[in-house]
Design goal:
Strand order of the largest sheet: 2-1-8-7-4-3
Structural class: alpha+beta
Protein name: Ester cyclase
Number of strands: 8
Pfam families: SnoaL (PF07366)
Low-confidence stretches: 141-147
Distance between the termini: 51 Å
Order of helices and strands: HHEEHEEEEEEH
InterPro entries: Cyclase_SnoaL-like (IPR009959), NTF2-like_dom_sf (IPR032710)
Helix content: 25-40%
Number of helices: 4
């Protein structure tokens, strides 16, 4: 089972290298990536490639740092930090977000299920509100405004 944790870590490292072919090869034909907040899904190796390309196009200098890997049987949880500058268009199911030029630091968590050495499912969790606020797309309120 330890190879699942190693593969999960490698997938995140491959993103930093923009090696989306390697990540797609690690995705099962019936594999599914789900962005939990929006419910967006990406199917199979081509969906994996589209998902990873979407983020890289929006944040061309983006990098992820793996903070923690927790393994339990066929499941691996990867907590990681994404950092980048929004200098490209981020295509989302809610429409395209044109470049804002703003920097972003986002805490993310992937819950991955492996079968036969491939990613069968990946659920990605992150705070979209924080992302939108950091990109200057929503108003932010401070605690003093609530007093």
């Amino acid at each position: 089972m330890a190879e699942n944790a190693t593969l999960a870590r490698r997938i995140h490292e491959a993103w930093n290298e923009r090696n989306f072919d390697e990540i797609a090869e690690a995705t099962a034909a019936e594999g599914r990536i789900t962005i939990v907040g929006s419910g967006d899904t990406f199917e199979g190796p081509e969906g994996s490639r589209a998902y990873n390309t979407m983020w890289a196009q929006g944040f061309p200098d983006g990098q992820v740092t793996v903070d923690r890997v927790i393994e339990s049987g066929n499941y691996v949880v990867v907590e990681f930090t994404g950092r980048g500058t929004h200098t490209g268009t981020l295509a989302t199911s809610m429409g395209e977000i044109p470049a804002t030029g703003r920097s972003l630091t986002l805490q993310l968590c992937d819950v991955m299920e492996f079968k036969d050495g491939k990613v069968h499912s990946q659920k990605t969790y992150f705070d979209t509100g924080s992302m939108m606020a950091q990109l200057g797309l929503t108003s932010t309120q401070t605690a003093s405004q609530h007093q």
